């Protein structure tokens, strides 16, 4: 009888403990209740239709599983981990995205968002979500779109046209180098592309968070892809929300390719551009003027 | 508490009843408490590592369907050498104060119950044995991560509930050799590349906290191999970028992962090596998610005799072969996850009978042959949300061929059932807490269960032992 009584006391204590636990303040520390502004948002990627809503695999369910820790329950980029992350997670409520195929200031296409989720962002905490199924990623795109009213009032921009790449030769590299000087890219990215230009330390993003320019000497991939086409697209669309502007109005298409070819020489890669530049630099070292404030006009010869 | 007499048996039944009531009350309490919380382990498990969550700022649920079970993203991360591949993997990018270590333990209450056990305080010498009370699990102190880009490591000193430590795993892995995810080389002690990991499943009780199939050998067999045991050796493993296609080839010391060239029984091992081959392939099936199927084969040898010096055993000799082959799956139907597993096992007759292979054949039972068996299970998990999962499993082992033809055909057979749920009130990137509840019961013939006195059935009229575990605990790691 004593044993039963003691067991019952234990039962009671366990239940009380559990009830106390379930109601304890620990739950108030983290809010994982997702708060979309449009839970019915959808996406269209190829032949797939993604949905934010849905029981098991819906975008918002997946968002809660994978994304809420950084991007937050309201999609505003202030998840529980945001304070430890640099650069800060994207604020989906603003619907401003770096990697687009559309002109600066416009909404990206669903395909752009899908590619970003799939690719991840190099040198940030955003991983590649390629291990998720295509349907799951399409659903996540819909979830991303559910956090901003912009998607209900605006259409995505029209993707820019990427012309055929011009031939890769030393002339193109040298013209690109001159543009790097003339357009003052070096002020942020540094004369050697190390991300250490004189303006680098002053840069902030659209939310006033400090932001570092891309360091070409360590990166083998860019935030928005790794091909020459991806790099060309960055010039012509800009990285919205960052100090990197669009050069669509000031660069001719062939100049864009020249710049691409030069920037490839700054990366630690064995590219055709790098080989051409090395050979040229070895043969013409005395003629090459340094990039930077002391360089003469053109700065390349 | 051990009960033997009839009076105590009655009292024991009341105690079991009140314990069941406690279980029910806990369940009711959770429901009334607007549930959202867990995991326990009398058996020791390797699992989730919040150190990774801290490093990358991801919630547990990014890598785990419910920790410690991995989802496809978590599998990719692990197979990529604990790297996300976003140029933030090398320790050089981490704050110097960051240290990739995690602790895990599960204080718990559990009840163990077994029929047909040998006891002294009973006229027949046979009784039901019931024990229950508050208890501790073992403890994991796990550190893992990267030493450099594409060089990863894992070190897991692990204790049992008494605090006695051993090295559950310890390895260095060279990842993405030649820049290809198809070539990764691991060296040390590690878990076999099993698609269904016994180290990461959601069962923890005495009867449910292991796969019978992974550790089964027929009664009397002297083979110490267990598919669920971490092994010592090297492994070449590869996978596609999204981890949908995976393979591994491992060469392992024939000692079931035990140090000092000793077997699991403490006897010297032979000087041979085993081979383990696995392959699995995943498919996308519409909105259902990633479905995965795989196959495996383990081929090895174990000694049946020993070289001695002055009577002291030096090393194993007269090695005889064994193998385990089968297929497995990891299937999703919305919130429902189903994992089927099948194994066919075969041991050489000298291993099966536990006699040296130099034994004259005339001394063997007439018709002696290698024992073989079929084993398998179906496990399910219903993921109501990332914070609540209901789990269940049915498992069966069936002897196909007895080493001694005179042995009853069902000697060694096992049926096992387990159900439970885990509730994770705390599941974020710094720590995890789960309430684990589980009930598991098994019926074995000729096999001593974990519950009870450690003996197979002592009742000549009823050769089956029913052994059950009821468990409630708080599983935490940080």
Helical coverage of chain A, percent range: 25-40%
Structural class of chain A: mainly alpha
Give the number of helices of chain A: 11
Tell me the Rg of chain B in angstroms. Answer: 23 Å
How many distinct beta strands of chain B?
Answer: 20
Query: Any idea of the CATH class of the largest domain in chain A?
Result: Mainly Alpha
Shape of chain B: globular
What is the H/E string of chain B?
HHHEEHEEEEEEEHEEEEEEHEEEEE
Q: What's the main sheet of chain A like? A: 2 strands, antiparallel
Q: Which protein chains are joined by the largest interface, and how many residues does each one contribute?
A: A-B, 49 and 54 residues
CATH topology of the largest domain in chain A: Cytochrome Bc1 Complex, Chain D, domain 2
Tell me the name of the CATH class of the domain at 6-37 and 109-130 and 200-477 in chain B: Mainly Beta
Q: What's the average pLDDT of chain A?
A: 87
Question: Which assembly state applies to the chains in this document?
Answer: heterodimer
- The largest sheet of chain A has its strands arranged as 1-2
Strands across the major sheet of chain B, in which order?
Answer: 3-6-7-8-9-10-11-12-13-14-15-16-17-18-19-20
Return the average pLDDT of chain B rounded to an integer.
Answer: 87
Radius of gyration of chain A: 25 Å
- Strand count, sense and closure of the main sheet of chain B? 16 strands, antiparallel, barrel
CATH hierarchy: architecture of the domain at 6-37 and 109-130 and 200-477 in chain B: Beta Barrel
The domain count of chain A comes to 2
Describe this structure in words.
The complex is a heterodimer of chains A (301) and B (478). Chain A has 301 residues and is mainly alpha-helical. Chain A folds into two domains: 42-153, Cytochrome Bc1 Complex, Chain D, domain 2 (Orthogonal Bundle), CATH 1.10.760; 170-287, Cytochrome Bc1 Complex, Chain D, domain 2 (Orthogonal Bundle). Chain A has helices at residues 2-22, 59-66, 68-71, 110-119, 134-145, 150-153, 170-182, 186-189, 228-237, 253-263, 272-283, and strands spanning 42-45, 48-51. In chain A, strand 1 (42-45) and strand 2 form a beta hairpin. The radius of gyration of chain A is 25 Å and the shape is elongated. Chain B is mainly beta and 478 residues long. Chain B is built from six helices and 20 strands. Chain B has a 16-stranded antiparallel β-barrel. Chain B is globular. Mean pLDDT of chain B is 87; it is low at 1-12 and 25-46. The chains are: A mainly alpha (301), B mainly beta (478). The interface between A and B is large, with 49 and 54 residues.
């Amino acid at each position: 009888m004593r044993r039963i009584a003691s067991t019952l006391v234990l039962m009671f204590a366990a239940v009380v403990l559990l009830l106390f636990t379930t109601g304890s303040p620990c739950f108030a520390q983290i809010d994982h209740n997702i708060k979309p502004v449009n839970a019915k948002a959808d996406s269209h990627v190829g032949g797939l239709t993604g949905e934010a809503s849905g029981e098991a695999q819906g975008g918002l369910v997946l968002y809660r599983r994978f994304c809420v820790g950084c991007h937050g329950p309201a999609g505003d980029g202030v998840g529980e981990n945001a304070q430890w992350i640099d650069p800060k997670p994207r604020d989906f409520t603003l619907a401003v995205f770096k990697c687009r195929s559309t002109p600066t200031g416009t909404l990206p296409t669903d395909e752009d968002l899908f590619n970003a989720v799939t690719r991840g962002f190099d040198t940030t905490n955003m991983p590649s979500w390629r291990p998720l199924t295509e349907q799951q990623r399409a659903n996540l795109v819909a979830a991303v779109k559910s956090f901003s009213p912009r998607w209900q009032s605006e259409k995505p921009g029209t993707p820019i046209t990427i012309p055929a790449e011009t031939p890769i030769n030393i002339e193109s590299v040298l013209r690109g180098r001159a543009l790097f000087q003339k357009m003052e890219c070096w002020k942020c990215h540094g004369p050697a592309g190390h991300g250490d230009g004189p303006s680098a330390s002053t840069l902030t993003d659209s939310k006033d968070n400090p932001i570092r320019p891309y360091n070409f000497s360590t990166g083998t991939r860019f935030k928005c892809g790794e091909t020459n086409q991806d790099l060309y697209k960055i010039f012509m669309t800009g990285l919205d929300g960052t100090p990197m502007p669009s050069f669509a109005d000031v660069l001719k298409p062939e100049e864009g390719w020249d710049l691409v070819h030069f920037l490839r020489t700054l990366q630690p890669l064995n590219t055709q551009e790098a080989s051409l530049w090395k050979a040229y630099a070895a043969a013409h070292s005395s003629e090459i003027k340094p990039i930077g404030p002391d360089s003469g006009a053109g700065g390349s010869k | 508490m051990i009960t033997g007499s009839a009076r105590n048996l009655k009292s024991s039944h009341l105690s079991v009843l009140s314990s069941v009531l406690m279980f029910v009350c806990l369940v009711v309490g959770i429901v009334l408490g607007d549930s959202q919380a867990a995991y326990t382990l009398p058996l020791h498990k390797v699992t989730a590592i919040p150190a990774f969550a801290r490093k990358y700022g991801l919630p547990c649920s990014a890598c785990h369907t419910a920790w410690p079970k991995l989802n496809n993203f978590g599998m990719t991360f692990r197979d990529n050498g604990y790297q996300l591949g976003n140029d933030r993997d090398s320790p050089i990018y981490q704050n110097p104060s960051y240290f990739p270590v995690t602790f895990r333990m599960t204080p718990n209450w559990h009840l163990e119950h077994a029929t047909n056990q040998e006891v002294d305080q009973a006229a027949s010498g046979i009784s039901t044995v019931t024990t229950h009370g508050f208890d501790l699990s073992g403890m994991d102190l796990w550190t893992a991560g990267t030493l450099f880009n594409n060089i990863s490591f894992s070190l897991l000193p692990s204790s049992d509930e008494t605090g006695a430590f051993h090295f559950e795993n310890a390895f260095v892995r060279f990842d993405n050799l030649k820049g290809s995810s198809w070539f990764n080389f691991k060296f040390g002690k590690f878990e076999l590349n099993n698609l269904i990991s016994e180290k990461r499943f959601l069962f923890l009780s005495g009867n449910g906290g292991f796969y019978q199939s992974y550790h089964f050998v027929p009664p009397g067999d002297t083979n110490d191999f267990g598919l669920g045991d971490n092994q010592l050796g090297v492994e070449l493993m590869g996978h596609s970028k999204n981890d949908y296609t995976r393979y591994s080839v491992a060469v392992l010391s024939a000692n079931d992962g035990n140090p000092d060239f000793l077997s699991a029984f403490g006897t010297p091992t032979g000087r041979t090596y085993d081979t383990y081959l696995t392959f699995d392939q995943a498919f996308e099936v519409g909105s259902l998610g990633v479905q995965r199927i795989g196959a495996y084969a383990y081929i090895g040898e174990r000694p049946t005799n020993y070289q001695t010096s002055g009577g002291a055993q030096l090393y194993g000799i007269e090695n005889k072969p064994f193998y385990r082959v089968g297929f497995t799956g990891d299937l999703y139907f919305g919130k429902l996850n189903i994992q089927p597993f099948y194994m066919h096992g075969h041991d050489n007759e000298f291993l099966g009978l536990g006699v040296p292979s130099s034994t004259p054949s005339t001394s063997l039972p007439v018709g002696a042959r290698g024992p073989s068996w079929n084993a398998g299970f179906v496990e399910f998990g219903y993921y109501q949300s990332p914070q609540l999962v209901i789990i269940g499993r049915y498992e069966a082992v069936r002897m196909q061929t007895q080493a001694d033809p005179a042995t009853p055909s069902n000697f060694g057979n096992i049926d096992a059932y387990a159900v439970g749920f885990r509730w994770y009130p705390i599941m974020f990137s710094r720590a995890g807490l789960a309430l684990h509840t589980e009930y598991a019961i098994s019926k074995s013939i000729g096999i001593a269960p974990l519950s009870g006195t450690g003996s197979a059935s002592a009742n000549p009229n009823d050769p089956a032992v029913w052994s059950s575990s009821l468990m409630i605990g708080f599983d935490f790691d940080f």
